[in-house]
Amino acid sequence: MKLILEKINKKFAEKTLFTDASFTFETGKIYGLLGRNGAGKTTLFNCISKNMSLDSGQIALTDETGEAHQDYDNTEIGFIYTQPILPNFMTAVEFVQFFIDINSTRLVTQKTASDYLIAVGIQEIDHNKLLKDFSHGMKNKVQMLISVITETPVLLLDEPLTSFDVIAAHDMKKLILSLKKDTVIIFSTHILQLAQDMCDEIILLHNEKLTAVNPEMIHDKNFESEIIELLSDNYGVADKETAHE
C-alpha cells in the first residue's frame, strides 16, 4: 500500500507551510520526518489524518489493486499525538474494551482488553486505574495501543518515545518495528539518534517541500552535522526559487 501526497499546499495567514509538496510513502519502511520548529510536521499529520483540510493538492491511499483513493476513511489513519488525548474519566481496561467493542467488525486479532494492555507493558495492577492517574508515558502506551488493535494501514507518530523510560522505549521500538511490514509508518522527531536507529528513510520538511535524503547517509558517522546543514536556512532555497520562476 502507498500513501501518496501530490502537490499539497497549506498556508496560515502569512505563514506558508507546503508549496506543491509531493511524496509517496510505502509499507515496509519506517520514515523519519525531520524539520525545524514551525516547519509544519504536525500540520502535515493533521492533513493526512483529515483533521485539517489542504488549501489544494491531494492525499490518497492505494487499495489492494493499487488504485489511489482520496476518499479514504480517517479511521485508516492512526495518529499518535505528542500529548495523549484520552478520556480521563475511564479506566484503562474500560477504554480499551470500549474501543474493542466499537471496532469489533474490523479487528483482525481477538484479545481481551487486559491482554492488549499487558502486551504494551501496562501491568495488571494498573488496568483498573483511571487514565487521569496514568503517567505521560503510560498514556502514550494506551494511545499507541489503539492503533495497534485496529491495525491501521497508516501510523503517524508525532514525537514518539520522548516520555518513555529506557525499558519502555525499547519495548515500543520493537512494537513499531514489528508493524512496518503491513503499515506505512511515519514519525516526526528532533532526536537524530532515534531516527538513525529506527528509520529506513529520512524525509525533510524544509522550505515548504518534502525531500528524501540519501538512505546511505542515515548510518554515516557525520549524520548529525549533515542533517543540520540540510536544515539550514539556505538549503533548498535555490530549487524553490527555480520552481517558482
From TrEMBL:
PANTHER family on file: ABC TRANSPORTER ATP-BINDING PROTEIN ALBC-RELATED
Domain ABC transporter: 3-232
Recorded superkingdom: Bacteria
One MF annotation (Gene Ontology) recorded for this entry: ATP hydrolysis activity
CDD domains membership: ABC_DR_subfamily_A
UniProt entry keywords in alphabetical sequence: ATP-binding, Nucleotide-binding, Transport
First and last residue of the signal peptide: none
Name by which UniProt lists this protein: ABC transporter ATP-binding protein
Database matches in InterPro entries: AAA+_ATPase, ABC_transporter-like_ATP-bd, ABC_transporter-like_CS, ABC_Transporter_VariousFunc, P-loop_NTPase
Gene3D superfamilies with a match to the protein in the record: P-loop containing nucleotide triphosphate hydrolases
